[in-house]
Amino acid sequence: MAVLVAFLPVLGTHGGGAAAEDTNARRSRPHHAAAPASAMEPAAPVLSRAGWTASASDEETAKADNRAANVLDGKADTIWHSRWSADAAPFPHSLVIDMHRTEVVSALLYQPRTDGANGRIGEYAIHLSTDGKNWGAAVASGTLADDATTKTLSFAARGTRYVRLTATSEAGKRGPWSSAAEIQLLGDPGLPASVVELPTTGWTASASDEETAKADNRAANVLDGDADTIWHSRWSADAASLPHSVTIDMHRTQTVSALTYQPRKSGGGANGRIGAYSVATSLDGVSFGTPAAAGVWKDDDTVKSTTFTRPTPARFVRLTATSEAGNRGPWSSAAEIRLSGPADPAVSGAWDRVTGFPLVPVATAVLPNNKLLAWSAYAIDRFGGSNGYTQTAIMDLGTGQVTQRRVDNTGHDMFCPGIAMLADGRVLVTGGSNASRASIYDPRTDTWSATGEMNIPRGYQSMTLLSNGDAFVLGGSWSGARGDKDGEVWSPASGKWRKLPGVPARDTMTADPAGPYRADNHQWLHATSRGRVLHFGPSKQLNWIDTTGNGTITPAGTRADSPDAMNGNAISYDIGKLLTLGGATAYENVNATRRAYTVDLGAGAGTPPVSKRTGDMGYARSFSNSVVLPDGKVAVFGGQSYPVPFSDATSVMTPELWDPATGAFTKMASMAVPRNYHSVANLLPDGRIFSGGGGLCGDCATNHSDGAIFTPPYLLNPDGTRKPRPAFTSTPPARVANGAALPVTTDKPVTAFSLVRAGAATHSVDNDQRRVPLTFRQTDRNPAGGASYELKVPDDPGVALPGTYMLFALDAAGVPSIAKMITIG
């Protein structure tokens, strides 16, 4: 189907409204010249439709040939349509694809009709079945945009025979109809969701043949954790002919769901990259039976994965190569091989179904009313120019429903902005495509309004609210003139901006080879007392910033031995304690790092923070996102080991959880969809985490107009059921002052309380997040099992920054309550 993958024109460019900059010069400078070649192809193969059949809950055949079979005929001008003659069939309408064989499937591609708008699917759900009778829970659901573009509806890769698409609304509300021109399915992209990498302790590896005469290319090298050592088939004297195999002996029976293959590094040569392969399992090392997975890997050095058609108990797993990816010779090689199995929810957490959005959620903000605000750019799937409007969406966290709105009244294309969560719960959005503009969303009235324009046009800037309720912005040379993006402060009283000539951005930049255009982007800012801010990255240099008067900036040492860490993450996990994770020495096209550091503010402003390297992540990441949990642990999602905007190559599919008590990272259940450049993550009031987005590159295959909610292990039993959790039995006041005593009651005794500030994420930055553990005393014990407490809100607004917080109670097992939303200040 030709419409699935189209060539992407050079992406549109952004001006910024800077009077001194020539308009034509602004338009000639792209955000990125074009999406990379890897963005133009789906991460998973398009499955052959040979032998497939399609059926429908209803179809129009009386007055038109709108049979379900038309979605498989390869013709965009023939369609399936729900029954519309006589009495139209009411919702829901469904299509069932029968592949007549078991395949690993990871996405459904829905092409709307091209001859009209009627019947474009709005709300949908996808179910899978091995027998066509038992369907289980939906693997994906959501809301589609009302346009004619082909939609990729992703879900966790799984072996199945039947795929059912159910429409429950028409996108434009035009009538009780559903239609489709073509349906395609994508195959195996790698790891399915809710698996974890199995520990290799005690494992051994053997091979059909190996090179030991002229090099140490033993099979054992695939398990040593060193990508610089490899297994290679015998190449000295007479090279061993294909096929070649490596067999992993786990020395115990475990359930295995997927295999991951890391080719040798390009620096060591391309010879032996595996092309066509199969994977088989055995309980005894003798009988291997039918392959659990097979396919062809691309000829590059990125990590490859393959999903088994079903989880399989095994002791031995054999990877067999039947071709060399580049047809360079009769060789095979591997740097590392890993196996994954089903995750224990109580240890690794679990993912909910994938939720489709009518846009790519490039930026998100958690609202006080249990909703999530998201937006993309002037378009739902691409950016370009300074168009003066923005596509937005709001997800109701209670119902899961998503609604879309185009915001025109502020004259602001809010792509690539700075964001600050204001003291009263409103969301301040600055710059980006319309680089001097500033807009405010008010969740109380569900309205957008304009506020004063910035003095300096910006894009990729960072913001934070100050302890006095003002908002501070710094950097942002992506839009407007390059360089000189010095600090400014916005006042909620006047709605105007005040320049800070004493806070030059040049003192905060990385050493990116692209200069200010990249070097002043996405800064990590932590507000403290009396209007001060710690700038603690992504440059290796830290700085104290004072925003009073004209402002000042004072060097505060370096982040221990950390290099620059552009597009890494930073988060406040405790009072005066910060964590930084990953990043890279340049914006793109360099290796990311696995390193993580703690930064302790110590005595506060004016004294150098104490930076220390903590445990390394299991994976190098750039373009990832992190959130702090109510218990002080930090979860990190997605990213790439070699950052390239708009690409899904080198994606890290395994989230990790950092424990401040040990400094160690634990691998969590893998994701179903890559989350890289332009992705987001947010802690939700129920203690779960939203992770979504990525892409926004137009007619490419790496737009991810969806998200999924991750349930951390603190909420789950080993069988996946929910642990009983404490609950508030009183309603705290909507607003409390700093220093106030806050009375609360719970349904059972608890051992901790914490505040987590509602966050706003974009471009791997969320400076609004912070966790504030509370001191408290028990004031009463209810005979029925409940208890009353008095919580102490910190006096210092530099600790409990003004704004909306989620108040959590945690029991002795560390299980958090559903939060109560309160405003501090």
From TrEMBL:
<feature type="region of interest" description="Disordered">
    <location>
        <begin position="485"/>
        <end position="505"/>
    </location>
</feature>
<dbReference type="InterPro" id="IPR006652">
    <property type="entry name" value="Kelch_1"/>
</dbReference>
<dbReference type="InterPro" id="IPR000421">
    <property type="entry name" value="FA58C"/>
</dbReference>
<feature type="domain" description="F5/8 type C">
    <location>
        <begin position="186"/>
        <end position="342"/>
    </location>
</feature>
<dbReference type="InterPro" id="IPR013783">
    <property type="entry name" value="Ig-like_fold"/>
</dbReference>
<dbReference type="InterPro" id="IPR014756">
    <property type="entry name" value="Ig_E-set"/>
</dbReference>
<dbReference type="InterPro" id="IPR008979">
    <property type="entry name" value="Galactose-bd-like_sf"/>
</dbReference>
<dbReference type="InterPro" id="IPR015202">
    <property type="entry name" value="GO-like_E_set"/>
</dbReference>
<feature type="region of interest" description="Disordered">
    <location>
        <begin position="16"/>
        <end position="41"/>
    </location>
</feature>
<protein>
    <submittedName>
        <fullName>Discoidin domain-containing protein</fullName>
    </submittedName>
</protein>
<feature type="domain" description="F5/8 type C">
    <location>
        <begin position="33"/>
        <end position="169"/>
    </location>
</feature>
<dbReference type="InterPro" id="IPR011043">
    <property type="entry name" value="Gal_Oxase/kelch_b-propeller"/>
</dbReference>
<dbReference type="InterPro" id="IPR037293">
    <property type="entry name" value="Gal_Oxidase_central_sf"/>
</dbReference>
<dbReference type="Pfam" id="PF09118">
    <property type="entry name" value="GO-like_E_set"/>
</dbReference>
<dbReference type="Pfam" id="PF00754">
    <property type="entry name" value="F5_F8_type_C"/>
</dbReference>
